[in-house]
Amino acid sequence: MKEDRAAKTYRVLFRTVPPVEEAKLKGALPVLVPEPIAQQTPERVVHRRADTTRHRRILAAEVVRVDGDRAEIRVTAEAGTYIKEWVHGDRGRTSPSLAERLGVACEVIELDVLDVLDDR
To answer: What is the pLDDT of residues 47-95, one digit of tens each?
Structure first.
């Protein structure tokens, strides 16, 4: 059965241009966790969905590893959060974003759901 309102935990592998030091990434994540995120409907789906703004939160985020221009993080977010857009910013349609906080371009390479959190 689909849990529409369940938070999810993700593994995100992404590339940064230019490469970012692990310390900088570790410093950015705690700042983003409590902040509300404003997300307009992503460019990749706006042709089939209404262009609205939703407000979501990242509940937890941690750095798994950084290797050159690639980084892996584990993120837990409220249901309905556009994770890829939170990472790359979607040309300013998601704010704050990880790319915005780091001041570099970010490109998601892999996104995997690790867990669906049951709030019952």
So the answer is: 999 999 999 999 999 999 999 999 999 999 999 999 999 999 999 999 9
Rounded distance between C-alpha atoms, residue 20 and residue 63, angstroms: 12
Query: Which pair of tokens denotes residue 19?
Result: 């490469």
Region 8-115: CATH code: 3.30.70.3190
**Amino acid at site 1:** M
CA distance 34 to 58: 7
* Closest CA relative to residue 41, chosen from 87, 85, 99, 102: 85
Q: What Å distances lie between residue 39 and 12, 59, 64, CA to CA? A: 18, 16, 25
* Domain limits, the chain: 8-115
Task: Record the tokens describing residue 61, joined without a space.
Answer: 């985020």
- Residues with Cβ < 8 Å from 44, sequence gap 6 or more? none
